From TrEMBL:
Species of origin: Klenkia soli
Pfam families: Epimerase (PF01370)
Pathway(s): Carbohydrate metabolism; galactose metabolism
Catalysed reactions, as listed in the record: UDP-alpha-D-glucose = UDP-alpha-D-galactose
Domain NAD-dependent epimerase/dehydratase: 8-254
Keywords: Carbohydrate metabolism, Isomerase, NAD
Gene Ontology molecular functions: UDP-glucose 4-epimerase activity
A biological process term (GO) from this entry: galactose metabolic process
The enzyme's E.C. designation: 5.1.3.2
Cofactor dependence: NAD(+)
SUPFAM superfamilies: NAD(P)-binding Rossmann-fold domains
Record family assignment: Belongs to the NAD(P)-dependent epimerase/dehydratase family.
Organism lineage string: Bacteria, Bacillati, Actinomycetota, Actinomycetes, Geodermatophilales
Name of this chain's protein: UDP-glucose 4-epimerase
Entry superkingdom: Bacteria
Length: 337
C-alpha cells in the first residue's frame, strides 16, 4: 500500500493501537505515533516507527507531527463505560474536546483523511423485539453511558467537518479481545474475557450479572472481535480513504456472531482445562441484553470480514498473558508483526 506522506497514529502504543500500527507497518505505510504512554507501551511499536510522547489535546504536539501527513488514524481515547460514570468530564475532554482540537489541526495542515475509533456503546440498550437483532449503522443511537455519548458526539464532529473538506471513517468496535503476541496483549482486567481468565487463574468467583436476560440461556450476549481483525479493519479503512474522498462514513467492526456470558465460560473451560468459578448476581441497570454487529456494510464497502472466532480470542488472550493451553490444540493466528 503506497502513499505520499506519513500517517499520524494517535494512541498507537495502546492495546488496539499496537495491533493497528503493526498492521499498517506490514502494509507499507510510514507512520508517526503520538502517545502519552499513560496506558501505552513503547515496546509495542515496530522498530523504526517514531514515537512522539505527548497528548492529542496538545496543539504543539500536533503541529510538530502533521506537516506532510497523508492522513491520521485516531485511537487515543478514554474507553471505560463504568469509568465514565465516575469521571464523565475526563471522557468528554479526551473523546470530544481532543477530537475537536485534532480535527482543527488536521484541517489547518491541509490533511483531509481521518480514520477514527468509535464504539458499539453508541447504540445503547434497546427494548422489545429489537433486543435480539443485530445493530446496523443506521440504527437510532441511545448511548447509556457518558462514554457512549462522547463517542457519539465525536462521530458528529467528524460528520460536520465534511463541510470543511475532511473525509473520515469511524469504526464502531464491538468487544475487542485477544492478542497477536505477548507484547501486544491487553494487561488490564476490564472486559469480560480478561475478567474470566483472571477468575480462572486466581479462583476468585466471576460475578455474572443476570440469568433473566431475554436470550437463549438468560445471560447477556456480546460480539467478541479479535484485535488482529480490528487492526485489519483499519488497514481496509485507510486503503478506502486513499482511493477516494468519501465524506463521513461509519462501520461496525465485529463478527456478526453473538456469544453469551455462559458461552465465554464454557469455551474458557475447554481452553484452560478447568471450570471458571462464578457467582450469579442481579442484572445491572441499563446493561444491554444483546449487542451484536451487523457487518454487511463493512464487508460490502471495504471488503473486510473478521477471520477469528471467540475461541481464538480467548486462547490467544490466555497464551499471551501467561496462561497455559491445556485442552485445545494450538491454532496459529495471522501475524501482524
Amino acid at each position: 500500500m503506497g502513499t505520499r506522506g506519513h500517517w499520524v497514529v494517535t494512541g498507537g502504543a495502546g492495546y488496539v493501537g499496537g495491533h493497528v500500527v503493526r498492521a499498517l507497518h506490514r502494509a507499507g505505510l510510514d507512520q508517526v505515533v503520538i502517545d502519552d504512554l499513560s496506558t501505552g507501551v513503547a515496546a509495542r511499536l515496530p522498530r523504526g516507527v517514531p514515537l512522539v510522547r505527548g497528548q492529542v489535546g496538545d496543539r504543539d504536539v500536533l503541529d510538530a507531527c502533521l506537516p506532510g501527513a497523508a492522513g491520521v488514524v485516531h485511537l487515543a481515547a478514554q474507553t471505560s463505560a463504568p469509568g465514565s460514570v465516575r469521571d464523565p468530564l475526563a471522557h468528554y475532554r479526551a473523546n470530544v474536546a481532543d477530537v475537536v482540537t485534532l480535527t482543527s489541526a488536521i484541517l489547518d495542515h491541509g490533511v483531509d483523511k481521518l480514520v477514527a475509533s468509535s464504539s458499539a456503546a453508541v447504540y445503547g440498550a434497546t427494548s422489545g423485539s429489537a433486543q435480539l437483532s443485530r445493530h446496523t449503522e443506521t440504527d437510532v443511537l441511545h448511548p447509556q453511558s457518558p462514554y457512549g455519548k462522547t463517542k457519539m458526539i465525536g462521530e458528529m464532529v467528524l460528520a460536520d467537518a465534511v463541510a470543511s473538506g475532511l473525509s473520515s471513517i469511524a469504526l464502531r468496535y464491538f468487544n475487542v479481545a485477544g492478542a497477536a503476541t505477548e507484547v501486544l496483549a491487553d494487561r488490564k482486567v476490564g472486559g469480560l474475557p480478561s475478567a474470566v481468565l483472571q477468575a480462572r487463574r486466581t479462583g476468585r468467583p466471576l460475578p455474572v450479572h443476570g440469568l433473566d436476560h431475554p436470550t437463549p440461556d438468560g445471560t447477556a450476549v456480546r460480539d467478541y472481535v479479535h484485535a488482529v481483525d480490528v487492526a485489519s479493519a483499519h488497514v481496509a479503512a485507510v486503503a478506502r480513504l486513499m482511493d477516494a474522498a468519501l465524506g463521513a462514513s461509519v462501520y461496525n467492526v465485529g463478527t456478526g456472531v453473538g456469544s453469551s456470558v455462559l458461552d465465554v465460560l464454557r469455551v474458557t473451560a475447554e481452553i484452560t482445562g478447568g471450570p471458571v468459578p462464578h457467582k450469579i448476581h442481579g442484572r445491572r441497570p441499563g446493561d444491554p441484553s444483546h449487542a451484536v454487529a451487523d457487518v454487511s456494510a463493512i464487508a460490502r464497502d471495504l471488503g473486510w470480514r473478521a477471520r477469528h472466532d471467540l475461541g481464538d480470542c480467548l486462547q490467544s488472550a490466555w497464551e499471551t498473558t501467561g496462561g497455559h493451553l491445556l485442552s485445545r490444540s494450538h491454532r496459529t493466528l495471522a501475524s501482524v508483526s
